[in-house]
Amino acid sequence: MPHPHGAHPNVPPPNAQPGPALGILTRAPHPGTTKTRLARVIGNDAAAALATAMLQDTVQALHSHDWRTALFVEPGPALDAVRTLTGHPDALPQTAGDIGRRMQSAAATLFDDEHRPVVLVGTDIPALRATAIHDALRALAHNDADVVFGPAHDGGYYLIGLNQLRPGREARLFHHTIAWSTDHVLARSEAVAAAAGLRAVRIETLTDIDTAADLADLRARLNTPGDHGPAAGPRTRALAMAIDLPADD
């Protein structure tokens, strides 16, 4: 598999010493190609602005000296724009293919750089905080699990953590036999893990933002009196409350 670092020799990762690594997979926020289901209700510009806020909040919340944080960006030509948006120089292009192939390639890149364990997340989970990364790394480091999943309420997962990426074992978790973007992704992935002889554990369940209903749910949680949980970062919180969301959605 081609190593993405070779295409960008002038942008060395700033904290690429071996140890744990976090890969954040993101699509560059652009009106018309970002959060398209949500955009049908709130408009392309608002959807792209919300995606930008979630990206910035995610990088800010998850960056840590305890692990390398690398962004994996789609499309590749948007690397510099995403670096500017986030202030985070450690950004690499995603490989082509479905989400499984993209995740496998990102994990392989980090393992090739001698990082272990490796955790992958997305950027559309407003409540995601560094505690979830610590929980996943702890389970992997203590040999409690071969794979860690962070379940999403829609039946998918927002986080996957691995100690290794072996052909026929962990690599099977990214194969085309899993129907991505369905409400069976987590259940199917756990079944694949069991068939491969992998011990899988779950951490906390969180909600991603893909639809107007998801946004309405986030706003309700932000408005709940006495709820002091981190429902969203500051940029996402402000924008989620300001967006004009039709009452019947």
Describe this structure in words.
The structure is a single chain. The chain is α/β, with parallel strands linked by helices and about 250 residues long. The chain has eight helices and seven strands. The protein has a single domain (about 15-240), classed as Spore Coat Polysaccharide Biosynthesis Protein SpsA, Chain A, CATH 3.90.550. The chain is about 35% helix and about 15% strand. It has a seven-stranded mixed sheet, with helices on both faces. α1 crosses α2 (about 45-60). It is globular and about 50 Å long.
Summary of the model, kept short:
With 249 residues, this protein is of the alpha/beta class.
User: Helix count, per DSSP?
Assistant: 8
Main sheet: which strands, in order across?
A: 3-2-1-4-6-5-7
CATH homologous superfamily caption: Spore Coat Polysaccharide Biosynthesis Protein SpsA, Chain A
Largest sheet, if any?
7 strands, mixed
The percentage helix is 25-40%
Structural class: alpha/beta
List the main descriptive attributes of the protein structure presented here:
249 residues, alpha/beta, Spore Coat Polysaccharide Biosynthesis Protein SpsA, Chain A, 7-stranded mixed β-sheet, 8 helices, disordered N terminus
